[in-house]
Specification:
Length: 173
């Protein structure tokens, strides 16, 4: 089983993913970390080669990661790629959300080239939210709750069979 974490930048995908993998006894892959390990800092890739080049590297990392069982954390924009969207259909997708008031301290590290302040983060999230929601089987908000609580909720959902919320909401449980 492959569980993929998606969501906006700084939603906690890596932190939750590592703990979820440990909790479930699965491997963990952060596709942004794979790109960084092979090609250098994301901000530098954007500056030197542009976003399309980064997205191609990201796509390759995603394709490899989702082909194996485990927990996979995707960069916030990875879901923009149609091939990645198609890959996600064969996985269980967890959307991590976060409210703007909780995000300010998380985006000050300058590691995110498309998010330089709260306003740019808000614009990006508003644009991507419909896509995130359309891909998600389960949604968890990371704004203020303890990470252990979030991990336990997701783990419980997976252990109960990982039935997509979108099906349950439509009465097809």
């Amino acid at each position: 089983m492959t569980i993929v974490l998606i969501g906006p930048p700084a939603a906690g995908k890596t932190r939750v993913g590592k703990r979820l993998a440990k909790r479930l006894g699965l491997t963990f892959v952060d596709t942004d970390a794979v790109v960084v390990a092979g090609h250098g800092a994301i901000a530098e890739i954007f500056a030197e080669h542009g976003e399309p080049y980064f997205r191609a590297l990201e796509r390759a990392a995603v394709a490899e990661a989702v082909a194996r069982p485990g927990i996979v954390s995707l960069g916030g924009g990875a879901v923009l790629d149609p091939d990645t969207q198609a890959d996600l259909a064969a996985t269980r997708v967890v959307l991590l959300t976060v409210r703007p008031e909780a995000i300010a301290a998380r985006i000050t590290n300058r590691k995110r080239p498309l998010v330089t302040d709260l306003e740019s983060w808000t614009r990006l999230v508003e644009a991507r939210t419909p896509l995130y929601q359309s891909l998600a089987d389960y949604t968890a908000d990371t704004s203020t709750r303890p990470i252990e609580t979030i991990v336990e909720e997701i783990a419980g959902w997976i252990e109960d069979g990982g039935i997509p919320e979108r099906r349950t909401e439509q009465g097809e449980s």
